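Before the break, one more example. Copy the sequence into your notebook; we will annotate it together after we see the structure.
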Amino acid sequence: MIAPEALGNASQFYYSYFGRVFYWDSTLFIGLVGLLLAIHGALYSERPIRRVALWLCVGLVVVSMGGYTPVYRFFYEFVPGFSFVRAPSKFLY
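Here is what the structure looks like once it is written out:
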């Protein structure tokens, strides 16, 4: 919000972006339709489904933060096949 092009211009990604990670891995875009559908689901779904969906969203956001949380390290060490995940930010989608 303060300096959107501090690490380069997103429209000319290959020429001017010099961020630490890939641009598309560090941004989350939901859009108006997705936001409206999420609000509708949160208001009008059955209570058990709503609770599971909320915990699933929170858990996936935590896992998508990758090495910045201890949860990712735990999954990396103890969940079979999780060590093959190259970009944990994909869990946001």
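The chain has a mean pLDDT of 77. Helices lie at 13-16, 31-44, 47-64, 70-78. Try to locate both features in your own notes.
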